[in-house]
Design brief:
Length: about 140
């Protein structure tokens, strides 16, 4: 199925936001799981944490900002790449990297996930087998 430029941009934007929200959710999940027993939030669900207005006021803008930055990078890196191959790989790597990085620092998990996503998208851009038919990788 051939998608026009506007449709492709929409798919890239949606994918970038999904990656950002999955990465943010994974980091928050790990943070919830590693809280000390003395913390009042220990044992509560990640969805309950997202119900907290303070957490939401930080989490939503940060993840949307990361998604917008990811979208800009994806326009360059994935425009001529098969998104059915590059999308799931980028999604999985960013979410897993965010979760692993959150064990060390919740604040660093999203930037680490963003950098890993950029690396994966760059790899996809230069992986010749993943180029759209009729497009060479550069």
């Amino acid at each position: 199925m051939r998608v026009g430029a506007l449709g492709r941009a929409g798919i890239l934007a949606l994918g970038a936001l999904l990656c950002a929200f999955a990465s943010g959710f994974a980091a928050l999940l790990v943070q919830q799981m590693t809280l000390p027993r003395t913390d009042l939030a220990q044992g509560s669900s990640t969805f309950r944490a997202l119900g907290d207005p303070f957490v939401r006021s930080i989490w939503i803008p940060v993840t949307i900002g990361a998604g917008l930055m990811g979208f800009v990078v994806s326009l360059w890196a994935l425009w001529r790449i098969q998104l059915a191959k590059a999308g799931p790989l980028t999604f999985a790597v960013t979410a897993i990297t965010s979760a692993v990085a959150a064990y060390g620092s919740l604040l660093l998990s999203l930037p680490v996930a963003f950098i890993s996503g950029v690396i994966v998208m760059t790899w996809c851009r230069y992986h010749a087998d993943w180029a759209l038919p009729g497009h060479a990788t550069r």
